[in-house]
Amino acid sequence: MATRRPVRKGSAKDVGEGVRLGTEQSAGERVLVEAAQSDPAKFEVLYKLHFERVYAFVASRVRERSTAEDVTSEVFHKALASLPSYEWRGVPFVAWLLRIAANAIINHAKRAAREFPAPDDPPDRAVAPELQASEMRAIEYRAQLFRLVGRLPEVQKQVVYERFVEQRSIREIAQRLGKTEGAVKQLQLRAVQNLRAQMEGGHG
Amino acid sequence: MAKRSLALQLNEVVQWMLVSLRPRPEESPDRELASLTRVAQVLRELPREEFRVALKSDLQRRVSMSEGTAAVPVGTGETKASAVHYQRPGLTGITPYIIVRPAAQFIEFLKSAFEGVERMRMPAPDGSIMHAEVAIGNGAIEVSDGNEQYPTAPGAVHLYVDDPDATYARTLQAGATSFYAPTDDHPSGDRWGAVKDSFGNHWYIAKPRGWTPGPEGLRSVQPYLHLREAHKMIPFMETVFGAEALGVHKSPEGIVHHATIRIGNATLEIDEAHAEFQPMPCHLHVYVPDTDAAYARAMDAGATSIDTPRNAPYGDRAAGVKDAWGNSWFIATYLGQ
Per-residue DSSP letters for B106-169? Predict the structure, then answer.
């Protein structure tokens, strides 16, 4: 009770980072892609830039976490392998990655269907090759939120990972962190409020 | 006060998101809660930090191996960073393998009682079922008519469903008999009912409330073992399968009232046999990263051998052991296509 502190919209200290994150646009992108084409070791930069977007896109289309990881992994391996044949046409690099991802999802569904043909459950949840602008915005939103989790105060970040990724119960998290269940619930609320505030800040 | 209740309200929403097998029904919570819920929903898809790091080092390794010639062909199934590369797609860390006769009728029961979806059936030359798989929710049950080596053995299974009362009613229509109808008074805190089907299997039909799911979330299908000296099973599974006890409720004398045990990305439950819930030695199918090592550890831990490790024709490295309680464990590692 005594530690309760309201988190007002826009009051989180690193809102500024949220603003910057959404705006790494195509300006330097071409340079980065061409650098990676001549030196594959520089692909890492592109991976860091786009990991969250690709994962957000894939995770929104496949149910299981393990499948989302398999497909994301496949996308980056394929992108790395195909990078020499990538031609810069002014289309954002992420669009190219997401096209690879869309194909990988279809292939994955086909492979799964071959192994377990289930007529009741058409595996192909039709992936539209061309993304709507609204969907692109949704992917940006999720990707930015994923990145912002890494900037939360340590204990809030821990609660988010334990709760949403590890999917542990409040009781278990309380035991692991040596806190009361009430405190964990407060931390959960504060983390989500923080993230919301920063996302709103990011939208201006 | 308003603040505190918001923490509780948000937690209720999150709890629902994490344990329900279906999306939360459309409601109109207040604006504050609704906007927090939107953020929480995205967090449910948050990537694992370990995965991000593992994939990065995978990519770095690939780059350093190919030294400037980036155009290395990539096999589509190649995903070293995956946490569950050793599991056959469609199966989890642990699946009940129910051997009853006639298996074909049992499959019909699974379909009508639990909305099971048959996704594989391999007949034996004599027309019996050598192996079949029925998906239920996000889990599966493997089924066979069995043979001399693997005789019939009904088992107990805990099913998480969205509507336990409706499911319970369907099991009775499909020929099961009731232990008790779904009740909110079960010690687990879940709404929980229990039936026995005409093949001798127990089904515990529940809707999640207070249950502690493993890291991969709620599993629809969990084997449930009633054991004598159940407390000794925990170290056995820890040693052999690298299992982790998620929640162990013991009496002061050390009797296990209930324990949830995680193996890989799935869970099973055990308790001390009691009343009508007596030991039912059964068959279990576990996927592990290294079948040979798990088999060796099982032998060291006092299990007896059913099958030594071998490459099975369907593409698994497979072995079989029997534990001190009489349960058979099919140990497997998926080798990829």
Answer: HHHHHHHHH--EEEEEEE-TTSSEEEEEEEETTEEEEEE---SSS--B--EEEEE-S-HHHHHH
Entry field: residues in chain B: 337
The pLDDT tens digits of the residues spanning B192-250 come to: 999 999 999 999 999 877 555 544 567 889 999 999 999 999 999 999 998 888 778 88
Q: How far does CA B335 lie from the centroid of its chain?
A: 20
What's the pLDDT band for B26 if we cut at 50, 70, 90?
low
Which chain A residues are closer than 8 Å to B76 by Cβ? 74, 104, 107, 111
Q: Which domains does chain A have, with CATH numbers?
A: 25-129 (1.10.1740.10), 150-204 (1.10.10.10)
What is the CATH topology of the domain spanning B94-334?
2,3-Dihydroxybiphenyl 1,2-Dioxygenase; domain 1 (3.10.180)
C-alpha separations of A194 from A52, A95, A126, A161, B7 in Å:
19, 30, 35, 15, 13
Is residue B318 within 8 Å of residue B287, measured between CB atoms?
no
Question: Using CA atoms, how far apart are residues B212 and B164, in angstroms rounded to an integer?
Answer: 18
Report yes or no: A93 at the B interface, CB cutoff 8 Å.
Answer: no
List beta partners, residue B157.
Answer: B203, B223
Q: CB within 8 A of B166, min separation 6: which ones?
A: none
Encoding tokens for residue B287? 């996927």
Question: Whose CA is closest to B76, among A81, A51, A45, A97?
Answer: A81
Name residue B139's beta-bridge partners. B136
| pLDDT one-digit tens code per residue, A127-176 | 444 567 788 888 999 999 999 999 999 899 999 999 998 888 899 899 98
Contact B213, B261 (CB under 8 A): no
Contact B7 A189 (CB under 8 A): yes
Q: Does B7 touch chain A (CB under 8 A)?
A: yes
In chain B, domain spans: 1-68, 94-334
* Distances, alpha carbon B138 to alpha carbons A186, B22, B191, B193, B217, in Å: 31, 11, 19, 20, 10
Is B33 an 8 Å CB contact of chain A?
Answer: no
Q: Percent of chain B having pLDDT more than 90?
A: 49
B130 touching chain A per CB within 8 A: no
A residues 9-48 near B, CB within 8 Å?
37, 39-41, 43-44, 47-48
Q: Which residue of B has its CA nearest to A112?
A: B89
| B1 in contact with A, Cβ within 8 Å | no
Report the alpha-carbon distance of residue A14 to residue A17 in Å, rounded: 6
Could you list the beta-strand ranges (E) of B145-255.
156-160, 177-183, 191-196, 202-207, 221-227, 244-250
Is A189–B247 a contact, with Cβ atoms under 8 angstroms apart? Answer: no
Mean of per-residue pLDDT scores for chain B: 84
